[in-house]
Design brief:
Strand order of the largest sheet: 1-2-3
Helix content: 55-70%
Strand content: 5-15%
Largest sheet: 3 strands, antiparallel
Structural class: mainly alpha
Order of helices and strands: EEEHHHHHHHHH
Number of helices: 9
Length: 200
């Protein structure tokens, strides 16, 4: 269950975590609400630069897109760590034609602490979420159990997102997968992009 909640009178993205019966909120949205920052990505970037421990854990505590699929895999007998990584790679490969490690290399994200999703465009994130959500929905409806069944489901869920991506690329004549990353953009350009997203 995903939803938009009000926090400090501002809209905040949230998702319900069935296993421990808790709501989880978008860290970026909460930081923006608490600080009233006009450029929350840059604010978080500075926070991470000042706090090495926060930076090293950011990828593990802020993977909202992966929550639903990971929770579903746990319920269905999939072992964490290596098997999770394989299933995530299957979704990504079917969605974008690239595994997460290949995607990071494509975007020139060489630092171990670089989180791929932090450097995705809006469209890349949307199709990532579609692949994850489709996989979760199929796994629930087909009652997929164990690693092998969920591997097949991951490919199917990713293919749904991949087909949608290809359809958009055909209509727009532009590739969704981008080499763009926020590390290599000048700060002024990052600010312009973020401001543009807020106006949408």
């Amino acid at each position: 269950m995903s939803n938009i909640k009000l926090f400090e009178s501002k809209n905040t993205r949230a998702t319900w975590h069935e296993a421990d019966q808790k709501w989880y909120f978008s860290a970026a949205d909460v930081v923006e609400a608490l600080t009233d920052s006009s450029d929350v990505k840059q604010y978080i970037k500075r926070m991470r630069q000042r706090d090495p421990e926060l930076n090293s854990n950011w990828g593990t505590i802020c993977t909202l897109v992966e929550m639903t699929a990971a929770d579903e895999w746990k319920k269905r007998g999939v072992k964490e760590s290596r098997e999770f990584a394989i299933l995530t790679a299957e979704i990504s490969r079917a969605t974008f034609g690239l595994t997460p490690s290949q995607y990071k290399e494509f975007k020139n994200l060489t630092y171990p602490g670089d989180n791929l999703r932090d450097h995705m465009t809006d469209l890349e994130l949307i199709f990532t979420m579609l692949g994850e959500a489709s996989t979760t929905e199929i796994a629930r409806n087909k009652n997929a159990q164990g690693f092998q069944q969920n591997k097949k489901v991951s490919k199917k869920g990713g293919k749904i997102a991949g087909d949608a991506r290809k359809a958009l690329e055909k209509k727009s004549s532009r590739r969704v997968v981008s080499k763009q990353n926020y590390k290599e953009l000048p700060e002024r350009e990052v600010r312009r992009l973020i401001a543009g997203k807020k106006e949408l």
